Amino acid sequence: MNFLDFLRQNWSELVTLTREHVFLVFVSTGLAIMFGVPLGILLTRIRSLQTPILGFANIMQTVPSLALFGLLIPIPFIGGIGARTAIIALCLYALLPVIRNTVTGILGIDPKVREAAVAMGMTDW
């Protein structure tokens, strides 16, 4: 059996599984952005929280994926085997880049640009 025969025989299953995979990626990335960007903004306002929160995100990034699934399975309401656990694990993995890049982006703004924005009426929020 060559590759094209495989595609013809399994096309419907491949489409279904690809759709499920894309759903998991979009939902987990959306959740990571939804939680990570406000958290990154908060970390630029309260600098004392940067070390513990970025430390937690760094730890989550270093945990191997299979070990993280093993840690999440016994937790009530989150655990088990399925899409919910995969979404939470992927969201935890995506938090570090989102938080870190939000903090870096906000702190990297040139003070002159910020001063000009305040002069034009920009508020803190």
Give a verbal description of the structure:
This protein has 125 residues and is mainly alpha-helical. The chain has one domain (3-119). It is 78% helix and 0% strand. The chain contains five helices and no strands. The N and C termini lie far apart (60 Å).
Provide key terms for this protein.
0% strand
Amount of beta strand: under 5%
SSE order: HHHHH
Strand element count:
0
End-to-end distance = 60 Å
Class by SSE composition: mainly alpha
Low-confidence spans: none
Shape: elongated
- What's the tally of helices? 5
Average pLDDT taken over every residue: 89
Q: What number of structural domains do the residues give?
A: 1
Q: What Rg is obtained from the alpha carbons, in whole angstroms?
A: 20 Å
Helix content: over 70%
Major sheet size, sense and barrel closure:
none
